[in-house]
Automatic annotation (TrEMBL):
Gene Ontology terms: biological process: tRNA splicing, via endonucleolytic cleavage and ligation
Protein's name according to its UniProt entry: Probable RNA 2'-phosphotransferase
Gene: kptA
Gene3D superfamilies attached to this UniProt entry: 3.20.170.30, RNA 2'-phosphotransferase, Tpt1/KptA family, N-terminal domain (1.10.10.970)
Record keywords: NAD, Transferase
Species assigned in the record: Hymenobacter roseosalivarius DSM 11622
Family of the protein in this entry: Belongs to the KptA/TPT1 family.
UniProt cross-references to InterPro entries, sorted A to Z: Ptrans_KptA/Tpt1 (IPR002745), RNA_2'-PTrans_C (IPR042081), RNA_2'-PTrans_KptA (IPR022928), RNA_2'-PTrans_N (IPR042080)
The protein's role, per its UniProt record: Removes the 2'-phosphate from RNA via an intermediate in which the phosphate is ADP-ribosylated by NAD followed by a presumed transesterification to release the RNA and generate ADP-ribose 1''-2''-cyclic phosphate (APPR>P). May function as an ADP-ribosylase.
This protein's record includes keyword NAD: yes
Protein backbone atom coordinates (compact mmCIF):
# COMPACT_ATOMS: atom_id res chain seq x y z
CA UNK A 1 0.00 0.00 0.00
CA UNK A 2 1.39 3.44 -0.95
CA UNK A 3 2.06 5.96 1.82
CA UNK A 4 -0.64 8.43 0.77
CA UNK A 5 -3.29 5.71 0.54
CA UNK A 6 -2.18 4.30 3.89
CA UNK A 7 -2.37 7.77 5.46
CA UNK A 8 -5.94 8.20 4.22
CA UNK A 9 -6.89 4.75 5.51
CA UNK A 10 -5.30 5.49 8.89
CA UNK A 11 -7.20 8.79 9.11
CA UNK A 12 -10.46 6.98 8.41
CA UNK A 13 -9.79 4.23 10.95
CA UNK A 14 -8.20 6.28 13.73
CA UNK A 15 -10.41 9.38 13.47
CA UNK A 16 -13.79 8.18 12.30
CA UNK A 17 -14.61 4.48 11.99
CA UNK A 18 -12.43 2.17 14.09
CA UNK A 19 -15.41 -0.15 14.63
CA UNK A 20 -15.59 -0.90 10.89
CA UNK A 21 -12.19 -2.52 11.29
CA UNK A 22 -13.11 -4.30 14.51
CA UNK A 23 -11.07 -1.88 16.62
CA UNK A 24 -11.86 0.10 19.74
CA UNK A 25 -9.84 3.20 20.56
CA UNK A 26 -9.04 3.75 24.22
CA UNK A 27 -10.24 6.93 25.95
CA UNK A 28 -7.30 8.92 24.57
CA UNK A 29 -7.63 7.60 21.02
CA UNK A 30 -4.83 5.02 21.14
CA UNK A 31 -4.98 1.56 19.60
CA UNK A 32 -2.41 -1.23 19.57
CA UNK A 33 -0.16 -1.19 16.48
CA UNK A 34 -0.38 -5.01 16.35
CA UNK A 35 -4.20 -4.89 16.44
CA UNK A 36 -4.29 -2.19 13.76
CA UNK A 37 -1.97 -4.14 11.46
CA UNK A 38 -4.07 -7.30 11.94
CA UNK A 39 -7.27 -5.37 11.19
CA UNK A 40 -5.78 -3.83 8.05
CA UNK A 41 -4.50 -7.18 6.83
CA UNK A 42 -7.92 -8.76 7.44
CA UNK A 43 -9.29 -6.11 5.03
CA UNK A 44 -6.67 -7.04 2.40
CA UNK A 45 -4.40 -4.08 3.16
CA UNK A 46 -0.92 -5.57 3.18
CA UNK A 47 0.88 -3.19 5.54
CA UNK A 48 4.02 -3.86 7.55
CA UNK A 49 4.97 -2.28 10.84
CA UNK A 50 7.87 -0.55 9.07
CA UNK A 51 5.47 1.00 6.52
CA UNK A 52 3.19 2.16 9.30
CA UNK A 53 6.07 3.77 11.19
CA UNK A 54 7.28 5.41 7.97
CA UNK A 55 3.87 7.02 7.37
CA UNK A 56 3.81 8.34 10.93
CA UNK A 57 7.34 9.75 10.57
CA UNK A 58 6.96 11.24 7.10
CA UNK A 59 3.36 12.49 7.02
CA UNK A 60 3.68 16.15 6.11
CA UNK A 61 0.76 17.12 8.34
CA UNK A 62 1.98 14.99 11.27
CA UNK A 63 -1.48 13.48 11.62
CA UNK A 64 -0.43 10.52 13.75
CA UNK A 65 1.61 9.78 16.87
CA UNK A 66 3.18 6.63 18.21
CA UNK A 67 3.41 5.94 21.94
CA UNK A 68 6.85 6.21 23.52
CA UNK A 69 7.47 2.49 23.11
CA UNK A 70 5.94 2.44 19.61
CA UNK A 71 3.31 -0.12 20.64
CA UNK A 72 0.30 2.20 20.16
CA UNK A 73 -0.80 4.69 17.52
CA UNK A 74 -3.39 7.47 17.39
CA UNK A 75 -4.51 10.39 15.27
CA UNK A 76 -3.43 13.74 16.69
CA UNK A 77 -6.78 15.46 16.10
CA UNK A 78 -9.78 15.52 13.78
CA UNK A 79 -11.78 12.79 15.48
CA UNK A 80 -15.48 12.38 14.92
CA UNK A 81 -15.47 9.64 17.59
CA UNK A 82 -15.25 10.68 21.23
CA UNK A 83 -11.67 10.69 22.52
CA UNK A 84 -9.88 12.75 25.14
CA UNK A 85 -6.52 13.71 23.70
CA UNK A 86 -5.18 14.77 27.08
CA UNK A 87 -4.37 18.28 25.89
CA UNK A 88 -4.09 21.01 28.47
CA UNK A 89 -5.79 24.36 27.85
CA UNK A 90 -3.18 26.68 26.36
CA UNK A 91 -3.01 30.43 25.84
CA UNK A 92 -3.20 31.00 22.07
CA UNK A 93 -1.46 33.71 20.07
CA UNK A 94 -3.52 36.88 19.57
CA UNK A 95 -4.42 35.84 16.02
CA UNK A 96 -5.09 32.45 14.52
CA UNK A 97 -6.42 31.56 11.07
CA UNK A 98 -9.09 29.30 9.66
CA UNK A 99 -9.22 28.25 6.02
CA UNK A 100 -12.52 27.39 4.41
CA UNK A 101 -14.28 27.62 1.06
CA UNK A 102 -16.05 30.83 0.03
CA UNK A 103 -19.36 28.93 -0.24
CA UNK A 104 -19.37 28.53 3.57
CA UNK A 105 -18.66 32.19 4.35
CA UNK A 106 -22.28 33.40 4.73
CA UNK A 107 -23.09 30.65 7.24
CA UNK A 108 -19.88 31.29 9.17
CA UNK A 109 -20.58 35.03 9.32
CA UNK A 110 -24.04 34.28 10.70
CA UNK A 111 -23.23 31.61 13.26
CA UNK A 112 -19.43 31.42 13.61
CA UNK A 113 -17.23 28.35 13.42
CA UNK A 114 -18.48 25.08 14.91
CA UNK A 115 -16.83 21.70 15.15
CA UNK A 116 -19.64 19.98 13.24
CA UNK A 117 -19.09 16.23 13.24
CA UNK A 118 -15.62 16.62 14.76
CA UNK A 119 -14.68 17.42 18.32
CA UNK A 120 -12.91 20.71 17.59
CA UNK A 121 -12.57 23.57 15.13
CA UNK A 122 -9.08 23.46 13.60
CA UNK A 123 -7.05 26.68 13.47
CA UNK A 124 -3.58 27.59 12.26
CA UNK A 125 -0.97 30.08 13.40
CA UNK A 126 0.08 30.36 9.74
CA UNK A 127 -2.21 32.04 7.18
CA UNK A 128 -0.56 30.09 4.33
CA UNK A 129 -1.48 26.78 6.01
CA UNK A 130 -5.06 28.04 6.34
CA UNK A 131 -5.14 28.79 2.59
CA UNK A 132 -4.05 25.21 1.88
CA UNK A 133 -6.83 23.85 4.11
CA UNK A 134 -9.44 26.10 2.49
CA UNK A 135 -8.29 25.04 -0.98
CA UNK A 136 -9.30 21.43 -0.28
CA UNK A 137 -12.95 22.51 -0.15
CA UNK A 138 -13.19 24.88 -3.13
CA UNK A 139 -12.19 28.49 -3.68
CA UNK A 140 -10.40 29.34 -0.42
CA UNK A 141 -10.99 32.16 1.99
CA UNK A 142 -9.00 32.70 5.17
CA UNK A 143 -10.58 34.07 8.32
CA UNK A 144 -8.64 35.79 11.07
CA UNK A 145 -9.66 34.51 14.49
CA UNK A 146 -9.28 36.96 17.37
CA UNK A 147 -8.04 34.08 19.52
CA UNK A 148 -6.46 36.18 22.26
CA UNK A 149 -9.64 38.18 22.78
CA UNK A 150 -11.78 35.01 22.73
CA UNK A 151 -9.45 33.37 25.24
CA UNK A 152 -9.66 36.36 27.59
CA UNK A 153 -13.46 36.03 27.56
CA UNK A 154 -13.42 32.33 28.46
CA UNK A 155 -12.69 30.51 25.19
CA UNK A 156 -10.56 27.39 25.64
CA UNK A 157 -7.76 26.58 23.21
CA UNK A 158 -5.58 23.51 22.88
CA UNK A 159 -2.42 22.91 20.86
CA UNK A 160 -2.28 19.46 19.26
CA UNK A 161 0.90 17.44 18.89
CA UNK A 162 1.27 18.55 15.26
CA UNK A 163 0.82 22.28 15.88
CA UNK A 164 -2.86 22.60 15.00
CA UNK A 165 -4.80 24.85 17.36
CA UNK A 166 -8.13 23.46 18.55
CA UNK A 167 -11.23 25.01 20.10
CA UNK A 168 -14.87 23.97 20.38
CA UNK A 169 -16.32 26.98 18.54
CA UNK A 170 -15.63 30.56 17.49
CA UNK A 171 -18.53 33.04 17.65
CA UNK A 172 -18.83 35.32 14.59
CA UNK A 173 -17.80 38.45 16.49
CA UNK A 174 -14.28 36.99 16.82
CA UNK A 175 -13.89 36.44 13.06
CA UNK A 176 -12.89 38.65 10.16
CA UNK A 177 -11.75 37.91 6.61
CA UNK A 178 -8.03 38.27 5.97
CA UNK A 179 -7.48 41.42 3.93
Amino acid sequence: MQNQALSKTLSYVLRHKPEEFGLALDAEGWVSVADLLSALQARQHQVTQAQLYEVVATNDKKRFSLSAAGAKIRANQGHSVAVELGLAPTTPPELLYHGTATRFLASIRASGLHSGSRQHVHLSADPAAAVAVGSRHGKPVVLTVQAGRLHRTGGQFYLSANGVWLTVSVPPEYLEPVA
